Amino acid sequence: MKKTLSTAILAVTLAAPAFAGCDKPSAPASLPDGKSAAMEDMMAAKKAVDAFRKGMEEYLTCEKNSSKADSAHAELEKVAARFNSEVRAFKTKG
Prior knowledge:
- This protein has 94 residues and is mostly helical.
- The protein is 73% helix and 0% strand.
- The chain is built from three helices and no strands.
- The protein has helices at residues 2-19, 39-62, 66-92.
- Helix 2 (39-62) runs antiparallel to helix 3 (66-92).
- The longest helix has 27 residues, at 66-92.
- It starts with a helix and ends with a helix.
C-alpha cells in the first residue's frame, strides 16, 4: 500500500510540470539611460534583459497560440532593440 501511494505521489509530482501553464515573463521594468548610466547599471540591465530573453525563449517553446507567441516575440525584439540602443549610447559617451 505504501509503495503504491509513494509511486502515485511520485507520478503526480513528475507530471506537474507538464500541466503547468505557459507563464509569459515580464519585461524589465526600466532600462538605464546609456548617456548617463554607470557601468554597474548597464551590467545589471544586461543581466535583467538576458533573464527576460531566456524566460521568453522558454515561453515561446511552450505557447501554442500563434498570436500570443507572435506578440511575445515582438515584445522580446522591442526590449532587445531598446537595450541595444542604450548600449550604443553608453559606448559613445566615452
